Each structure stands twice: as C-alpha cells, then as structure tokens.
Amino acid sequence: MKKLLYPIVIGLLAVVLTACGSNDEADKKSGGKETKTTEEQQNKKDEKETAKATEEQQKKMEEMQKELDKQKVDEKKTVAIVNDEKISGAEYNTVLSTTQMQMQQFGQDPTSKEGAKQIKKQTIDSLVGQTLLLQAADKKGYTASKAEIEKQLAQIKDQYGNEEKFKEAMKKAGLNSKMLNAQIAENIPYTKYVEKEIKVDEPTDKEIEKSYDQYAKQAKASGQKVQKLEEMKPQIKEQLKQQKKQEMLVKRVEELKKNAKVDIKI
C-alpha cells in the first residue's frame, strides 16, 4: 500500500503548496522540496523495512515448512492395516498436514520432539478411526449414489464462485477430479452413518446456560461485548450437540477397535 499511497500524498501536497501562493515564492518552493525529499526518504525507509520484514517472515515460513515436510512418509508406504484394508502414506500425509496446521493454530510447535510425536499419534488415530467408521458404514449398507456425488460436488464448486477458483483450490490441495470424487463417495456414506447411527441427547437448558456463562466470562475478560443468552442459545445448542456427537464417535471407534485387527506400520 505504501508504494501507492506515498506518491499520491506527495502529489496532493505539491498542488496545495502551489495553490497557496506567497510573496516569498522562493522560500515556499524550497520548503516544498525539503518536504518532498523528507517524505521520499521516509518512503524508501518504510519500503526497505517492509521488504526486510517480509523477507524474514518468508524465510521463517520456508524453514518451518522444511521441518514439517520431514514428518511426511513415502506416499506408497503402507502406514497401517485395518481389517486387511491398507492405509497409504499419501493418505497419512494429507491428514498429517491438517493436524500440523491445527497444532499451529493452537499456538503449539509441531516441529518440536513432543509436538512431532503427538502429531504422528493423532494422525494415525484419526486415519484408523475414519477407516473403522467407513467399514462400519459399509457393513450397514450405506452407499453414495451418482446423483448424490454430483450434487455434493456442485455444492463444493459453488463455494468458490467460478471454475477457475475451484481448480486453483484443487491444485493447492493436491487433488484432481478423480481423487475429489473418491473422497465425496466416501464422505456421503460416512455422513449417513453418523447421522443415523450416532444418536445424542438434546442439550439441556442447564448445559446451555453453563456453556453461556463460560463464554460470557471469557468475553468480559477480553473486553468484548457480551451477547444475550437468547441470542446465543441456538449457536451454543448446536455446538454442544456436535461436541456430544464427537464424544460418541470416539466411543464408537473404541468399541469397533475391540473386534478389529489394527496393525500400525510406522
């Protein structure tokens, strides 16, 4: 922004100085030149500082990414076998990247020894859990029709506005059409299974009030405006419902593990 703003400011200043006029024109021109020179110097200084800061930030990000990439495995390697179903290194690396990102968002260092250990466990646990749930969905007969896949694909595309943005997002995610369709085809039966088989009780008023009190306390502490309970109630209710469902999913995975053969290869 500074590259664009400073020339505009200088130009406007020159117009103002000219419009003012004076009996001592020489002095005013001299003052204008000094002001212009000072601003130009400040502009150059700011540009250098911004460029340096950007360069340092970019360097840190590149170094961090190199460390994160070291945690990846060979895409063709089998990282685990769940009931005779193999989980590939490519699948592992995809979930790994998401786990690394989540850890960073929580202000933790995914490149530390403890962080790397935690990420590996979470990634494997997540993959094993997903595989067990998908296998359970398959046993229950949940499937994805061609129409359902096409409908969900269209909904995903709509989120990006146009085809070009969608293709760009696909490229960044390392996906192609075949891979995306396969993921959608897996996601639909999984979603049906969770909706039909994982039942949770509706959050009680007491649970909602308790969650609201925690929110209000945090909001006040950070100087934020506290919304009324009635305004927050639908949002809190849905959050609690999703939290309960997640807890039930964890329990279901543990139950499925008891009768499953899980062989971790890394």
UniProtKB/TrEMBL annotation:
Question: Which Gene3D superfamilies is this protein grouped with?
Answer: Porin chaperone SurA, peptide-binding domain
Where in the sequence is the signal peptide annotated? 1-21
Regions annotated as coiled coil: 212-246
Q: Which reaction does it catalyse?
A: [protein]-peptidylproline (omega=180) = [protein]-peptidylproline (omega=0)
Q: Which domain of life is it from?
A: Bacteria
Annotated stretches, region: Disordered: 23-71
Any one GO molecular-function label of the UniProt entry: peptidyl-prolyl cis-trans isomerase activity
Give one Pfam family, short name only: SurA_N_3
- UniProt keyword annotation of Coiled coil present: yes
Question: Is Coiled coil a UniProt keyword of this protein?
Answer: yes
* SUPFAM superfamilies for this protein: Triger factor/SurA peptide-binding domain-like (SSF109998)
Alphabetically list the UniProt keywords: Coiled coil, Isomerase, Rotamase, Signal
Q: Which InterPro entries match?
A: PrsA_foldase, Trigger_fact/SurA_dom_sf
Its EC number(s): 5.2.1.8
Basic and acidic residues composition bias: which ranges? 25-71
Check the record and name the PANTHER family matching this protein: FOLDASE PROTEIN PRSA (PTHR47245:SF1), PEPTIDYLPROLYL ISOMERASE (PTHR47245)
- The entry's protein name is peptidylprolyl isomerase
Tell me the organism.
Answer: Peribacillus simplex
